[in-house]
Amino acid sequence: MTGGLEFVILTGLSGAGKSQALDSFEDAGYFCVDNLPPELVPTLVDLFRREGSKVDRVAIVSDVRGGVYFEQTEHLLDELRDRGVDYTLIFLEASNEALVRRFKESRRRHPLAGGGSVIDDIREERRRLAGLRERAHVVIDTSASNIHELKARLNADVIRHGRRSSIVFAIVSFGYKYGIPIDADLLFDVRFLPNPHYDLRLRPLTGLDADVRDYVLGSSGTEEYLERLFALLDFLFPKYAAEGKAHLTIGVGCTGGRHRSVAIAEAIADRYQKQGYYTVARHRDVARD
Questions:
Q1: Which helix (H) or strand (E) holds 243?
Q2: What's the pTM value of the predicted model, to 2 decimals?
């Protein structure tokens, strides 16, 4: 282990918000370094592992701005693992459309800019980063997020919990009318359940409210559905953890993402938190009208 050192590596697509994310860690008291070449990471770790070091939380950004040095990042992760360094790898991404819009608005050049278009640069960067995305402990899609929402997510999912080495299960509720989460590994549709939207007393509420939760969980078919769903997840979760997968995102969808999917996602998260799994419940569309 790293002698109490929490080490966070931020990477991902250019324009996805890595600089803003690093600000969140700096605000939380982490020692932060932006655009650190991978070959310097072991030296940094050794510096803060020395006896008497007063730095116990470090966050760095390493991305394609590092040029040829960045290509060594996956080898760096292997080295950190072999040396017993307990790190958290966070990968930030966004849709091609969102990234193109951000580059146009900021008038910045893409780090891989050559003779082609911005969308070509984004696609090439996404290809180069595919391996790192697969190894990430946390993957965050910032397509529809502003700076404040990104910081809130990091605070809830990472900063408050400190380092970890086990798999992370993210349970994400959403509304099908707004599209399927692009980072979902598994999808479950609960639109067959009775809809609280048609109860005028419950319509203004959400699945986070007790009245809606009781309505959804007490509806005909919900108990049987959860029994079957939990049996599947009871089988899958240990398999994914044993396979070495770092993160798994489970999408639970209803029509608008405010009532049924929220209540079911909370029920899933609560069950597996009690079983000792690291689970995070997020509700993408709960605030939509």
A1: helix 222-243
A2: 0.61
